[in-house]
Specification:
Bound molecules: coenzyme A
Number of helices: 4
CATH superfamily of the domain at 2-112 and 157-174: Gcn5-related N-acetyltransferase (GNAT)
Strand order of the largest sheet: 3-4-5-6-7-9-8
CATH topology of the domain at 2-112 and 157-174: Aminopeptidase
Number of strands: 9
CATH class of the domain at 2-112 and 157-174: Alpha Beta
Order of helices and strands: EEEHHEEEHEHEE
Strand content: 25-35%
CATH architecture of the domain at 2-112 and 157-174: 3-Layer(aba) Sandwich
Structural class: alpha+beta
Largest sheet: 7 strands, mixed
Shape: globular
Distance between the termini: 33 Å
Length: 192
């Protein structure tokens, strides 16, 4: 069941990340992106530099996803640098909820526009971003090196004076049988 900001009954909660999450967050990143995962130290130091920019989707037994949306220094613009959901927990609403809460968070930071890069063949992610009103603004050829084109997608975001609420979403019990996602490419690097 899903209410406003909450999907009830799945035992998955979207909340701000904490330092203690990073071992598991890195494990999720490796599971999702394989050789393209961020090194642990990069994740950890990005957290120290921008602690308020991270959200995780967590079960009582561990993390199943995360998102990272970072504003520019003047906070007029932000980039969605990371969005990943463990393949075993896809199509449950985690990606949608992480995206929604990240946009809310950026809204509280007075960000006006948010962009992301996505591999042109990553249909699951493109579908999700379109749902949130992102539109294609650019096709950057060889953006990450030869053959590594990326689409840039952008949307305006609504500004909030404070967080709409603490992320707290309960998503029904895992349905590995529904884990039929094939996407495996990150926002900013090539996928497989
Ligand atoms: C993209 C990703 C984060 C989506 O996570 P998720 O938890 O499965 O997404 P949700 O369950 O919230 O799905 C939200 C919507 O996205 C779209 N979507 C998600 N997976 C899809 C798929 N395999 N095929 C088509 N559309 C898909 C659908 O519109 C879906 O809504 P619906 O389930 O009501 O049809 C996940 O597939 C993932 O981690 N992929 C690998 C990493 C990645 O590509 N990150 C983004 C890079 S820019």
């Amino acid at each position: 069941m899903r209410t406003d900001n909450t999907i009830v009954g799945h035992d998955i909660c979207v909340r701000p990340a904490q330092p203690a999450d990073f071992e598991q967050l890195h494990a999720v990143d490796v599971r999702v992106f394989g050789r393209l995962a961020y090194p642990y130290f990069t994740l950890r130091q990005l957290f120290d530099a921008f602690p308020e920019c991270w959200l995780v989707a967590a079960r009582p037994s561990g993390l199943v996803g995360y998102s990272l949306g970072m504003p520019s220094t003047d906070r007029s613009h932000a980039w969605l640098f990371g969005l990943a959901v463990d393949p075993r927990y896809r199509r449950l609403g985690c990606g949608r909820l992480l995206t929604k809460e990240t946009l809310n968070l950026l809204g509280t930071m007075r960000v006006e526009n948010v962009s992301l890069t996505v591999e042109p063949a990553n249909e699951p992610a493109i579908g999700l971003y379109r749902e949130f009103g992102f539109s294609m603004t650019e096709h950057r050829q060889d953006y990450f090196g030869p053959g590594e084109d990326r689409l840039v997608m952008t949307r305006r975001i609504q500004q909030h004076t404070r967080p709409s609420r603490q992320p707290a979403s309960m998503i029904p019990s895992p349905r590995p049988d529904l884990a039929h996602d094939r996407g495996r490419s990150r926002c900013d690097v090539s996928g497989e």
